[in-house]
């Protein structure tokens, strides 16, 4: 069913927040809310569950520079609290909020591209022995 569409790089489609199958339809309805399905090709987005993945990446790569900036201002200049609010606060918002959307798009597109889903057991009819699905 997906054979009519050429494989698209999750980076290309995800970072632009476009449909991982057709690369045309928008993935989000609002800032971080996924649409029910693609507006262009009708791909059902119910497979998508990036959970707190985007937040994890933001914590790793955006929050740490914000904390370092705040600590550096404190140590180097003994900056008063209002400087921290005016400099570190906006810096933290600017580095944490904007990456959430492309990161979530990239994770959803990667889920689609690599067909990632929860593992489940399949029982073989002859033996009844559990085998992991692939
Ligand atoms: Zn689509």
From TrEMBL:
Transmembrane segments annotated in the record for this chain: 55-73, 79-97
Keywords from the UniProt entry: Membrane, Transmembrane, Transmembrane helix
Pfam family name, one: DUF983
Protein name, as recorded: Transmembrane protein
Organism: Rhizobium freirei PRF 81
């Amino acid at each position: 069913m997906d054979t009519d569409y050429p494989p698209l790089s999750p980076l290309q489609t995800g970072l632009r927040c476009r449909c991982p199958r057709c690369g045309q339809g928008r993935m989000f309805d609002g800032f971080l809310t996924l649409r029910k399905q693609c507006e262009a090709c009708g791909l059902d987005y119910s497979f998508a569950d990036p959970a707190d993945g985007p937040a994890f990446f933001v914590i790793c790569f955006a929050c740490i520079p914000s904390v370092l900036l705040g600590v550096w201002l404190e140590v180097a200049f003994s900056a008063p609290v209002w400087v921290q609010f005016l400099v570190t606060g906006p810096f933290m918002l600017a580095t944490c909020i904007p990456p959430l959307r492309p990161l979530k798009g990239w994770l959803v597109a990667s889920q689609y591209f690599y067909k990632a889903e929860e593992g489940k057991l399949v029982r073989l009819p002859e033996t009844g022995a559990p085998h992991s699905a692939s």
